[in-house]
Structure formats: C-alpha cells, structure tokens
Amino acid sequence: ANTTSEFDTIAAISTPPGEGAIAIVRLSGEDALPVANRIFKGRDLQKVASHTINYGHIVDPDNGEVVDEVMASVMRAPKTYTREDIVEINTHGGIVATNHVLQLLLSHGARLAEPGEYTKRAFLNGRIDLTQAESVMDLIRAKTDRAMQVAVNQLDGNLSHLIKNIRQEILDALAQVEVNIDYPEYDDVETMTSKMLREKALAVKNRIEQLLATANQGKILREGLATAIVGRPNVGKSSLLNYLLHEDKAIVTDVAGTTRDVIEEYVNVRDVPLKLIDTAGIRETQDKVEKIGVERSRKAIQQADLVLLLLNNSEPLTQEDQALLDATKGKKRLLILNKTDLPVKLDLSQVKKTVPQQDIVPISALTATGVDQLEQRIADLFAGGIDNSQSTTLVSNARQIGLLKQADQALTDVLNGLQADMPVDLVQIDMTHCWDLLGEITGEAYQDELLDQLFSQFCLGK
Ligand code: GDP
Ligand code: ZN
Fold first, then answer.
1. How much distance in Å is there from the Cα of 237 to the middle of ligand 1?
2. Model pTM?
3. What are phi and psi of 141, to 5 degrees?
4. What number is the ipTM of this complex?
5. Could you tell me how far CA 166 lies from the centroid of its own chain?
6. 38, 76, 82, 319: which has the highest count of C-beta atoms within 10 A?
C-alpha cells in the first residue's frame, strides 16, 4: 500500500486553549519526524519504533534555550489518525511554553494546520468517509449521552454502511437494465425492464424514507429540543427551572463571543435533551419583580419546539396569562398549573375548551409535587421522537438530510417517468442521479468547496 503522504506537514495545539496539566502539540505529514527531531533533544525520533512515547526536551536550535521537558509520541503511517506520520508532543501545559513549542515547529518546517485539517486528511487519505468525519464533530459537540451514542454509532460507519447498501441496490438495477438492453430477443423486454425498475425504485425509496423518518429525532438528539419556559412574573419559572437543572446536572455552554443572553443550557428529562431558551432572562431577575414582558416571551416562544406555559393555580387568570395562552396557540405546549400547594383560585373552564386535559399538568415547584408527572409528560410527547434502542442509525446532519431528500425526489422522478411510459434510458438518468446524490453523503462523490466548508467547522487541532 502507498503510505507516503501527498500533503505537507502540519502542526497545531490539539488541546483546548488555556492552562492545563498537559497540552498536546500535534504534527502530521511526511516530514513530521524530521521536523520534530530538529527541536527535540533525546532519542532520535526517526529511529525509534512506531507507537512509542519518548522522553526528552524541546530545545530552540538557534540559541540552545531549553523550552520545555516533554514526552513525544511517535506514530508512523498508516496506523494513525490521519494515516500519515504523526508526532504528538506532550508539554507541561503552560500557555507560553506550549505556544513556543508550536512556534519552533512552524519555523522549522511545519505549517499551521487549518481547523479540522487532521480529520480532513483522515478523510482524504481514505481512513474515514464523510459521515464519519461529521460524526467526529458531533462527538466533540455532543450534549447528552444519547447524542454521543448516536455519534459513536455513526463513527463506526453504520450510516455509511446503510447508504452503501442502498447504492449497491441501485447499481444492480442499472446493471440489469443494461443486460436487458443487450438481449432484446425476449419479446416483453420493455415491460420486464420497467417492472423491475419500478420495484427497485420503490424498495430504495422506502429505505430512504425510513432514514429520513429518523431525521427529526436525530435533530432533537443533536441540538436538543428547543424549550421555552414562559409565564407572568412570580408564577414560578425560576423555581421550576432550578428544579430541573438541579435534578439533571444541566450542561451550560457559553457561546463564545456573545453576551450572557445566549447562554445555552441543556437538561435531560428522561433522556429527552431540552435546550432551554432564554434562561438568562428567567434567572437574572430571581427574587426581584420581573420586568420580562410578554414581548420578550414572544421571541422565545417563536424559537421553541416546546413551550412550558406556567399559570398560577392560586390566583385568578390575568390578561397577561390570556395573552400568553394566545401567543402559544399552535405550539406544542404544556400548561403547567403551579403552586397547587396553595388554595385554588384559578378558573380554567374557558381554557379547557381549547387545551386537551392531558396537556394540563398541576405541580408545585415548591414541594416538587407533580414534577415527576411533568417529566413523564414531556417524555411521552417525544416518545415517538426518541428511539431508545442503541443500535438505531439516525440521520441528524442537515447536509445528509438535504441529500437524502434530493435522492428521494430523484426516485419520485423515476416512478413518474415509468408511469408516463418514458423511454428507459431517460429513467436511467434519474436513477443514476439518485445514486450520485447518495454518494455525496458518504463522500464517494464530493466537491472541494464542500470539504472546505465542512471541515472549517471543526476546532483547531482536530
Ligand atoms: P418567576 O418570577 O416566574 O421566575 O417565579 P419564581 O420561581 O421566582 O417564584 C416566585 C415566588 O413564588 C418565589 O417566592 C417562589 O418561592 C414562589 N413559588 C414558586 N413555586 C411555588 C409553588 O409551587 N408554591 C408556592 N407556595 N410558592 C412557589
Ligand atoms: Zn424568575
């Protein structure tokens, strides 16, 4: 096998920025070993065995200055992440020293890697396909255990495997058409061919639609179900939020370079990952009289897949309650009657005409009564959406979903063409188009811009 790389040697810090116990500077490419050797004092890295860890020092060859004491891992192609020679230098983790090591590599033969370039090389060198590369990114970003399992499943190549099978079926059908055309001595060859094509197209369409049916749950798992907790001031939003957060150890992500308004919080409710919207608005006003009007809630409601609308069970319905009820009409919502530990003052007779009984959930955020039932209700709402079997292959990626939809359309064209008695060679074109589109999913057919766009979403050093 050809193990030499056609690419230059790249370097980057592969651990997150900031101070840590160790940091890793990673080199990949055909000159990885000689470049590392130029600044490494210890054993000759070009002579050590592959997949070994070597103790030594990083020394600036220009002035003899010792920069850091390090461990250098040497991994020779092809059994590496990129399928190229890789050297990973474990430094002591200080920002200055780690950057200094990187600078030395850059001034002695390496080039700074672009974001995702290591994974891109793994793809270009044939170690992984596109769906697997995308799942590397999903793994990094996974917000819940379940999302992580889906990514691991995809990294294993399960989706690719499925797509490859479907493509093979299409190829078989196309080959069969050729055979039929080459042996036209049979009388009813035309009828036979279109019957066969129709059956194949239907079968393949069915499989693609099954995959597409998983897209919604895939999206929920990947991004979380956008959930807005709304209600007038003092109704108990913060209390419920804190209860949910406390209960499930939410993950808080600070979206880089933005204000605290868009802090994203995730909470798992019975394996349904909720991405809570506008929690900053709920939290910053704790204990004080809230000034969050209906207007602000409206924005959150718009973005939400699920609205949790709180009403105070111990007070009569107000205009503001009514406004929120109106604003959430047509949304998937649960009406939460809070403060059921207090005497009932709320009259819901009007509301009950439009809101189904099972969507009204009485709770007390103070005593945690009913919160279990609320969680169960949320889980039920999306039970159809979240499949718990570990083996399911889900598509969750917008690019993959887009291509599957186009492939599905191409098959509709095939079926319509057959229905209209179009010549078989025209139908073949649509069938081939479908095959091409599926190939783009796994990257067997791809365009350079796509790769650039895709891998640029990775973090540096991956
Ligand atoms: P928010 O303004 O909607 O976020 O409401 P908060 O969660 O800040 O709650 C307002 C007040 O109501 C606080 O004093 C809470 O302790 C109280 N509270 C919240 N939930 C309940 C409940 O179920 N029962 C009772 N009795 N008080 C509650
Ligand atoms: Zn609040």
1. 7
2. 0.61
3. -95, 0
4. 0.98
5. 23
6. 82
